[in-house]
Every structure is written in C-alpha cells, then in structure tokens.
Structure prediction request, 1294 residues.
Amino acid sequence: MTFPQPRPQAPQLPQHLLTTIDCQQGAVRAVRFNADGNYALSCGSDKSLKLWSVSRGTLLKTYSGHGYEVLDADGSYDNSQLCSCSSDKTVILWDVATGQVTRKLRGHAGKVNCVQFNEEATVILSGSIDGTVRCWDTRSRRFEPIQILDEARDGISSLKVVQHELLTGSVDGRVRRYDLRMGQLHVDFISSPITCVCFSQDGQCTLSSSLDSTVRLLDKSTGEMLGEYKGHKMKGYKLDCCLSSKDTHVLSCSEDGHVYCWDLVEGSLSLKLPVGKAVVQSLSFHPTETCLLTAMEGRVQLWGLEPEETVKTEEDTMAS
Amino acid sequence: MASDSDSDEDFVTYGTPLEPLEEDEPLKKPVPLHEQTVKDEKGRYQRFHGAFTGGFSAGYFNTVGTKEGWAPSTFVSSRQQKAEKQHVRPEDFMDDEDFSEHGIAPREITTSQEFSSGRKDAVREKARAVNAQAALIPGDTLLEELISPARLSIGVELLRKMGWKEGQGVGPRVKRKARRQQTKGSSRVHGVVLPPAGSEDSEQEEDDDDEEFAPENVTFAPKDVTPVDFNPKVGVQGLGYRGLDPGLALLGGGAAEHIDLFRPQSDTRSRLFGGAQRGSRRGGGVAGQAFGVGALEDDDDEEVYHRDSMSRYDTVLGGEEPGDGLYGWTAPQQYKKKAEKSKDASYLGKILEGFTLAQKPVRDKTIFPPPDLPRDYRPVHRFRPAVDVKSLSGVSPALAEALKTSRGHMVKEEPEQGGRHQLDSGQRRALLGEDTLQGPSSVMELLRPEDRERLKNLRNSSNVPATKAAPTPLSQDALKSAVTLAGSLAARAAGSADHGHDRGHDHGRQQEALAAWKGIQTTSQTFRPFEKNPSKQARYEMYLNRLKQGDKDALEQSLDSGVTEWERSRERDEFVRASILYRPSSSSLSSRFTRAKKEEDDNSVEVSRDEEGDVDDKQAAVNMKMFGKLTRETFEWYPDKLLCKRFNVPDPYPGCGIVGLPKVKRDKFSVFNFLTVTESREPPAPPKPPESGKRSRWDVSGQKAEEKKKEEDPLSELLSAARNQTETKPEKTLPASTSTNHQTPDSRTKEAKSADQEKGNKDDQEEEEVEEEENRPPMDLFKAIFAGSSDEKSSSSSEGESEDEEEEVGDIKKEEVQGEPQLINLFKVPSSSSSSSVTSSTTTPNTTSSRHTAVVSTQNSTQVEEEFGPKLPPPSAALSRGGATSIRSPAEEEKLSKRSKDKKHKNKKQHKHKKEKKKKKHKKHKHKGKQQKKSKKETSDSSSEEDSDGGEPEQVSTEELLKRLKSMKSHETW
Prediction:
C-alpha cells in the first residue's frame, strides 16, 4: 500500500500566522524554502530574487540580474548556490554569498516557468513556456544544455526532481515522469492544463494540480489515481500545490485567497486557511516541520502549527 | 697439447661470440619488436626526417635545448672579466652527424692536398696550363704561380725532373708532321668532337704558321692534350647532375663570375672542360640564393638577393630578336650578341662533361602555312543531293522555292538560336529544363473538342499548312506535286552509290538522336523546326515521341509512307538531323549540373517512433476518473550520457547513441503524422455542437475558428442562430461597436455581425450548460494556428470587453460603486511595469474616460503577447503602496474579493449564483479592461478593432445600455 500510515494524532496543520513579510519586490511569483528550511527565497516581479531568514523574517540578500520578473527559484542542497528563472528566458545560477551571477543560461525560447537543481546541484533543470525542459550542466563551462526534453506539446508549467526522476507538468494536460535510471518516460494524461506537480515525500506518489480546480494524487508506478481533492479554485492562474512534510496532507493555493488543506487519505478538507483576499500564488511547505510559506501579491506569510507567541519564544530559545 | 694451444692462437675469429650460457640463469627474453629501436651513439633515437642528407636531429627531440630545457647563455661582462667576442663557426651549429662520413661537412682523415692527385685538380691545372699558352700574354699564369704556393703534385714534379715542361705533352718527341697526325689520331681515337673554340682555332693556325719554318731535324714534344674525363657514371641522377658538393658548400665558391686578375679566361675555359668552378669567393658557409646571409657573416655589401635589372630584359619587340634566334625568349639571362655559333653555348648553359656542341646545325624543317579559308567557309559538310534545280527543264520558280525551303529549314533557323531574346518562352524554358506550365499551350486547346476535330478535318482534307502565311490551296497543291516531281528526279540523280554510305552514316546519327532523346519525359515544348509544314511537323513530333520512348526504328515508322522514296529519305535525313540539332537542351544543360547529394526539402520528417495513443480514449478515461492504464503511457527514453553521469545514475542504454525519444523517419506529408494531432484537437464527435466543450480563456481563438466554421456552414449557423434567438433574444440588438470584422449586410453575416458579442454570451450559456463537463479540447491546435497573430488577443479583448459591457450595465443599474478603477486585468498578468498603470488608475478614481494608455509601457504589451498557458495572478495594487499591506480599507477588501470573482468570470467558468455578487462592481472592470485593451492595441494589427475599442465606452448610448441590461436579465432568468 502506498498510502502513508494513518496518523496517530490529531492533524497538525500550519494554521497560525506567524510572520508577514512585505517583500517589496512587486508581486511575489514564488516563494521557496531552501533545502533545510531555514531560509526562504522569494521571486519578485520586479526582477529581483530575495533571500530571507524564515525565523526572523529579515532580508538577507537581494539578487538582481534578471531582465524580467523572476518566476521560480531553487537552492542547492549545500546552500551555496541558487538558481532562478525568469520571464526574460534565462536561467541564472547565483552564488549565494556574493550575490553574483555565476552563470546565465540562455536557450529557452520563452519565459522559463520553473527551475530546479538536481540532488547534487550538478544539473539545473528548467521548464519553459516553449515546451522544453533543458538540463544545464553546472559543472562544466558549457553554455548549451546537456539535453533538451522537448516531448511536451505545450509549455512546461512545473517540474520537480527527486533523485533520478524528473516530473514535469505541462499545459498540454500531461504529467511526464522521466526515469533516468530506467530510461523510461511515463506520461499520465490528466487532460486539463497542469499547473503544478509534486512528488510525495516517500517518492511513491505524484501530485498534480490542474486548471479544472482539481488536485490529483496519482500512484507513481501505475498512474492510478489515489485521491482527488476539490473545492478550491484554480481556473486560470498558475498556482502551486504541495504535500505536507509528512505526506499527511495535500495543500493547494486557490484563487479565492485561501490555502486549502485536505487530508491525504480521506480526501476531506481539513483546513481552509484564509490568507488574504487576492490569489494565493505560491506556497512552500517546510521540508521537515509543520510550517508553511505562502505568497500573495507582494507579501509572504509564514504559517505555523502553534500560535505566534509560542513559536516566537521557541525561536528565541533556539536562537539564543 | 702445446701445438693445440698454438693452433688456438692462430685462429682468426669473425663476428661477436655469443655469451656463454650459464645454467641457472633464466633465458633472456627476446626484445620485442616494438622495442627494437635504432639509436645513435649518444643514445638518441634515430629518426627519419629530412629529405636529403638523412635529416637533422637537432637538440632535444628536434627542439633547441636539452632534456633539461633550453637555457639561453647569459651575457656576463665585468671589468675584470671582459666578455669574449664569440666567434661562432658554422660547425658550432652542426650536429655530429654532419661531420660524419655522409654529413654535409665530413671530418675524417683523408689524403691531404699535398699527396692527393685528385683528378679534378689535375684537370684544372692542366687547363690552366693550356690556357697559359693560348693567352694573350704568354705565360700569363706565371704571375699566379709566383703568388700561389707551389703545390704541385708528385707526378708533376717527377715529370719535371724528367725534363717535362709546362705546356708540353707527355711522350717521346716527334716530328712536326707526325705530331699533327697524332693530334688527328687522338681525336679520332676519342671519338669526341672537340669544341671548335676560337682559341683552338688560333692554335691551329699557329701550328700552321709554325710548320712553315720548322726545320726537318727538329723534333717537338708532343702537343699537350687535355685528358678526357672518363668518370663512369655511377649514380642514378640525370646527366650533369652534381649534388651538393661539401667542399663547395663549406669553402665557398660556385659563385658568380668574377673578374679575376689571375685567370682571365680560365673560368670559361674550365667550364668548357667541365671542371668544377672554384670561385674566388671567400669561403665559409653554404652560399646561394636560398640560404641568404647569416647574421655572423661579416660583409654586408654582398648581394644577398638575386637582383634582377630591367636591362637584362628585352624591352623592344622585334628588332634584334631574329638574330639570336630566341624568338621572344626573355628569360633573365645574359645573352650577348655573338656572331659565332659556338658562342651559343654560353646561353645554353654549361655543357655537360663529355659533350660538345654539335657542329652540324640541325636542318630546319620547312613549315608550310595552312591554306587561307574562304570567308564564308563553314566547317560542316552537308551532303546535298546532286540536283541542279536550275538545270532541270520545266521547273517552275515555285518548285525551286519549295526545294529551297524544304532543305533550308534547319540551316536557316540555326543562327536564330543565338540571341536570348529571339527565343520564345517555351524555348527558354526548355533551355532551363523547366516543366511546362499548366494550362493550354495553344489556342487550339481552348477550343471545344468537336471544334478542334472539325478544324483538324478541314486541315487534313486540304493538307494545307494552317499558317497565316499559307498560300491558296490551289497553289499549295501545285507546289506539292512539284515537290514530288522534284523528289523523284532527285532520287534518280542521287544515285545509289553514295546512298549506302549515307545509310551507314544515317544509322549512326539515328543512334545519336535516340540517345539524346531517350528517356526524356519532359513535355516541355521543343523547338519546332517544321512549323511551316504542319503535317511534317506532326510526323516529326511523332518521331520524337517514339524516340523518347526509346523506339529504335522510330524513324521508319513515323515517316510519311505516301511520298516518294526520295522524299522519304530526305525527310528521314532531316528528322534525324533536326532531332540531334534540337535535342532537348535541358539534357545538355542538366548534364553540367550534378544532382544535390542531399535534398534540401526532404520529404521525410523525423517523428517520434512511439506515437501517443488515442487521446479520445484517454479523455474518456479521465472523465470517468479511471486513471491508470488507460491514461498512462510509457516510452523508451534515452537520457544523455552526461546527464546520467551528473545524476550519478548508470546509463540505462549504454553505448546507444540516441538521445531523447527514438525517432523514425516518416513521410513528411503523410496523413498519419497528423492524425494524432487532429484527433487530439478536434472534438471527438463531429455532430456535437462546438460549444459543448467547456471553455477557458484560451478557447477564444478556438471559438473564433468555430465561428468561422459556423459562417461557412449554413446549417450549423442556422442552428446556432436559432439557439441564440431562443436563449438570448437581445443579441441582435447588440451595439454596432462590437461588430468588427463582419460588416457585410448579408443576412448570414447579420448573425456573424454579432459574433463577438455572441461569443461572450455563449460562453456564459455554456458555462451554465456544461458546467461539470471537463472535456475541454486542448488548445494546442488553435494556438498553433493563431499564436503570434494579434487577432487572438484583439478578439479576446473585444470579447472581454463585451463581457464587461454586460457587466457594466448590470453594475450601473444595481449599484453605484465609487468608480474604483481597480479592475482586474482580465486576461493578462500585469507585470511590474503595468502595475504602475494600475496605480495610476487607483489614484485617479471616478475617471470614467480613463485613458491610461500613456502609462502602459511597451514592455507590458510585449509581455502580453507572450502569454500562454496558465497565467500568473496580478500583482496587487497594494504593492505600490508599500508596507502597509496588512491594513486595508474595507473598500479595498471588497475590491479584492470582487476581483477574485471577476477573474473567475473572466475564465468563463463562473456560476450563475455568483453573478449576482459579481455585479457589484463594474466600472472598475470597464476601466481596467479598457486599459488592457489599449495596451493590446499597440500590438494589434487590426485598426478596425482599435477603432471599435477605442470609441466604444463613450459611444454607448443609454438605449444600448438598456438593451444590454435586458440581455443580462434574460441571462439571469434563464
């Protein structure tokens, strides 16, 4: 059974607002935790990429070098490098400490929607509106991608890499999973344009949200649908979805200003988190803790399990 | 035993004895072949390079320096220790090999000059001695001998002691006569004609003079002769070849002709005698034009490069040339005018050893010039029948004319081909090898078949050329009979003798024609040599056609059987020649070009080997939520090797060159390539009304296409019209402003007139109709067709506009919201730059005619152009406001909430019950929509659209608003 074990205790969900950060970088197109969850990256529509300390809510660094709004970003496992992609069709590899552009990768024909490092940060994978995923080598000085995956018939809206597997969601309504070890490509037809795809933490399932306002949990190996989550609004915007750190819940942004949180197994709505009035564009779940980052318009909000005070104190104690 | 040992001592051993084998020592492994290398005495590898002397093996592996590297010697000079002036000899730069026996400067023990009796030297000496006698001042070389060290060979000294004197021959003294004979005899013996040099001649004369007063009893020493060099030729080089002479190279010499005080004539002399020139040049170094001057050589005033002066060339044509017989030979060599033939030797260069100039001049070959051709000579021979037209009695001038024309066709037309402008299009086309244009090639083809038949009959019956210039039928007939008569006469006259020859000749030409025409399938119009005689031309064309088919006896079959033998033979001849002459030039032209190896426009295209399965099935499966096998497809996918490496994953397909999905070549225009595409794009059931699918924004173009389809299809149009009438009555009364593209007053286009509006309404209806249905057809096709063109956007904008208008009506009616122009951008992601426009709109409330076009940057518009796929949410207006985001005015909150709803509305998936809520606020809508439109307009091409868009908001009359309001109401009630 690919389902996670039934949880023993009451659902633990990030339902308390801890921090609100006004990023001051236009609309925040994406917000991402780094590998260990201590930092957050926010991609602004004012061409800047900002690095935040999650616990303190302070700005650590601003990375500017893109020519248009930044659409996605990712941090390497060792926190030494960042990659970001932008509407200016480029992917940029950043040095975290200096804030300098290590490499600017051009090649996509359209705006680049999504970008990710592989596990060892040796390859940057970027998916673009031009329908291709390009695999950029960070080790060599080559400026051409190692490989171009052009199987998608429409723009790539989302991609995720876990170990040797690459999951892409495309506007052509298909979720593609490239298995490098097996040398296989699995295509799951969803029919509605995919906005976001995720692997589950255990690597057995894939989650895909599509523009028919549905989030689907599919078995990775067979493609069977394990769960379907509805109720939110996702009709036209490219919004994120994700799984909680322990695979207990499915979370999705919604155009009605909420983050919807379903129980993974039962499929019932566990929480409807009112973030704001506008569209919740991006969200990112903490890799280990019950902690959620949401982005709406120009703000990034941090949600936690406990009310603010307790967390604050906790953080204080941690910091001290 | 002692004797044994003694005998041992006496043995002579050859070679190197093998080392005695020791028993417990393991056998030495033989050195493998690849390790058996040749090394020189210093342990360096012997390499083969250098062409002539075995090559230089310089430095360390042909580099300067040593194994440790190249270290330039540092210059050190101090007061105590002055730097020595370095005298570097050429030998310092030479390798050891060069000094060996076969190098360029052998250093080995040789006979010193004193003891050498080098033949060359001897020859030279002797020549000098002979010269001395013949010189102007006798004993001229004495001066030289005074100075030069007496280095006479032992033989000479011995001879001297025996009483021999310089200039005398060796041998018993003879009487004068005998001596003369001997001279002759010697020359006879040698069999070599000595050069008739001038000096020799003078000598001869001298001898003659001597003879007169020679007393009887006086004997003379025999005349000295220059010994003939009988060096056998040992090498394989050509005659006269002399390799690089080491002595010459090192000691200098071999240089230019120098005026030598001591040897006035000796040089030329010795050259004649074949002796090597010992130039007086100061020695040292390899000299010559190719070697240049080394940096270490002292004198600078030497001519380094060969200098060529113009005075050595002839600048005048003619003149002195015939004299020297060079006939324009202007090579840079010095030739002097020499009267004597013998002096020609100097221009011929050095005479080879043992050769002399021939005394007998070569007999000139008399060359007879070719005869002058007559001016009108044509180098083509035609066999013309021996018919003398004039001489035939009773032949009319008409017949003569006919004969002329019948013969002259080909000849006459030939020069016509010359100019490009004289060719008609067909000929040029044939020249270029193009195909015939589709369509009638002549007027005849435009006629109806029966007419054509009639014409043909008419023509055949009269057997008259249908040309304009044709004479009357009567005269034609007469002409024809005349021709026949002439033909028979000519046939008789031609005789059968050369007929056979002609046959053989003809046969060859027929073959040629066949080869030229065979296989040519182009229907391109060829030249018509017998245009004036249509029947003949027809026969000719028949013949050509048969040729094209490769028919061997094409000629015989296509000839007219109804004419005389002579005429037929004539015609045969003409046809063959015409077919050769006017062979399709495309073939001759095309033979000059080679076919491209790779065709640019390949008819095959690479497609993925594994095609995706039927999308309809999958769609059905998705609708039934049967994910799994039905929706899952698995392909072989080849990751790049490097990608695998980077992912720390073994290559799943090692050694396979494929990357990505395996491709196969398919026919480019095969329907099957597009089958999946069409399948996936088209709605599965054709009769299904096109509105059935659920729409998103992206369907706009699709709807447009459908609209177009509808326009084309009257039936469906009717259907939709009926539907529209029942469902949305007020549509017909839509404002004219929305009728953008369809302005024709046709009843059919009346429907289309409201197309845009219709769309908007329909969308609403559809939403209600097929709420739950999810089988929206993919947008790719429409995008592929319409992407990049601005219609999509403009249409969508107009659509949105219409929607907005509707909403607006409702708004005006229901609620008077303060004119917050904070509208959602209906379709686009407002970029950061567009946010500025948004802010401006927020700061200027209640401006109904908000023209913010100026604010909208072009960047925005370009971004708008790029939009595909899911959109990004708009950045909030609050962004510009800075930090105070948490504090919002209630109005703003409301706005926000509405905005989200508006978005939904925009996406046309809005539910009815939400409409009420939505209606709350419209002006914003409108304004924003307008803004958006304006920005789009910048990129849109259709000016009409622009006009309608731009003028609309103000032009909407109250009546129209009411109408729209009605329509809204009908929507709601429905």
Summary: The mean pLDDT of chain B is 57. Chain B is about 45% helix and 0% strand. Chain B touches chain A through 74 residues (CB under 8 Å).
